[in-house]
Amino acid sequence: MLNQSADHALRAVLFVARQAEDVPCSADLIASTLDVPRNYLGKLLNTLAQTGVLLSTRGPRGGFRLAMDPASLPLARIVEPFHRLPERRTCLLGNGACDPDNPCESHDRWQAMTDHLTQFFERTTVATMLSGHGDDDGTTVIMHRTRPARDVGATSPTSGQGSYRRTGT
Amino acid sequence: MLNQSADHALRAVLFVARQAEDVPCSADLIASTLDVPRNYLGKLLNTLAQTGVLLSTRGPRGGFRLAMDPASLPLARIVEPFHRLPERRTCLLGNGACDPDNPCESHDRWQAMTDHLTQFFERTTVATMLSGHGDDDGTTVIMHRTRPARDVGATSPTSGQGSYRRTGT
DNA sequence: GTATTATATCATATTCGCATGAGAAACTCA
DNA sequence: TGAGTTTCTCATGCGAATATGATATAATAC
């Protein structure tokens, strides 16, 4: 489904999101909880911090915490740096035999499937994932981004220094 | 979406399925058409033959043809030897934190997504993929298999020696 | 300001999917 | 039977993803 890096990243963020907001999780804690090699996870957490998903603080009582409201954080934002979601342009028969202007017989069916997949990652937020079992349809669209915005930087959260208000829960 | 091997395999089978039934396609032809390295594709075609998806004949005018009615051939059957479809048992939070008896908060949502994906491959047949654009719902369930049956061997087709009757078209 | 804790970064090892090449085996046709 | 065609099989190369280890850098607490 996802490659290992994306999988680790997603699970790490969900873990961090479940903790109290202002208590950072150390990479050590996350790594041992998820049973992922320490240094390897460190690198993943690092890129998550660079893409503005997590905030990192060094030193004692340091660690990682969410950089934004989990209700505004689609899974795609977490996953994209590690795992390319399928592109709309080419379908199964790819190379020349199929493009949007001159689609092959299989194009529509294949694209319906990949679209479903892509939209799951784009529409599902961290908050949704933690909101219990799937019988409420909290999967409202939060943001539509066509391509990964790589240079997001630590986008300053809505209300001051890393303290957003949790909406639901 | 799929790894390259599964992708090549799928496209190769679709290509073969589009040809006349009794004229085998040589690996050379398929490879050049799909723009895939000859020997690499050969190995893929070989395992497709071993899993009973294709029939291979050697010698002049030899090559590969479908081993069964395309309407009875779900994409999963083609893809499984090369690409593991997601398993139902473990979800996102995997390792111990989540199992079917004691699911995590994210379990249902994640599983709904993976189920959708898995069912696409299990319910969509080669015939469906070639039946034109996706507005008819020809995706009726053909077979339900929970785990890959690796030792299928060349399951003798329904009506004698490799000559099935094509249903639609 | 020094010791401690933790992230950041670099260099390197390992594993696996992808790919290549050469030769063996099987089949057809003349 | 022998030449030609095609799949089959084995051995090997290559590169990216995964993983490890050591050191540098930053923040806190005393």
- How much helix is in the residues of chain A? 25-40%
Evaluate the radius of gyration of chain A. 18 Å
How many DSSP-defined strands of chain A?
2
Q: Which structural class is indicated by helix and strand composition of chain A? A: mainly alpha
Largest sheet of chain A: 2 strands, antiparallel
Oligomer: homodimer
Measured by residues with Cβ under 8 Å of the partner chain's Cβ, the largest interface is: A-B, 34 and 34 residues
| Number of alpha- plus pi-helical segments of chain A | 7
Commentary on this structure:
2 copies of one chain form a homodimer. Chain A has 169 residues and is mainly alpha-helical. In chain A, 40% of the residues lie in helices and 5% in strands. Chain A has helices spanning 4-18, 27-34, 38-50, 75-79, 94-97, 107-123, 126-130; strands at residues 54-57, 63-66. Chain A has a two-stranded antiparallel sheet. In chain A, α1 packs across α3 and α2 (27-34) packs across α3 (38-50). The longest helix of chain A is centred in the C-terminal third of the chain and has 17 residues, at 107-123. The relative contact order of chain A is 0.17. The A-B interface holds A 1, 7, 10-11, 14, 34-35, 86, 92-95, 103, 105-110, 112-114, 116-117, 120, 124, 128-135 and B 1, 7, 10-11, 14, 34-35, 86, 92-95, 103, 105-110, 112-114, 116-117, 120, 124, 128-135. The structure holds a DNA duplex (30 and 30 nucleotides).
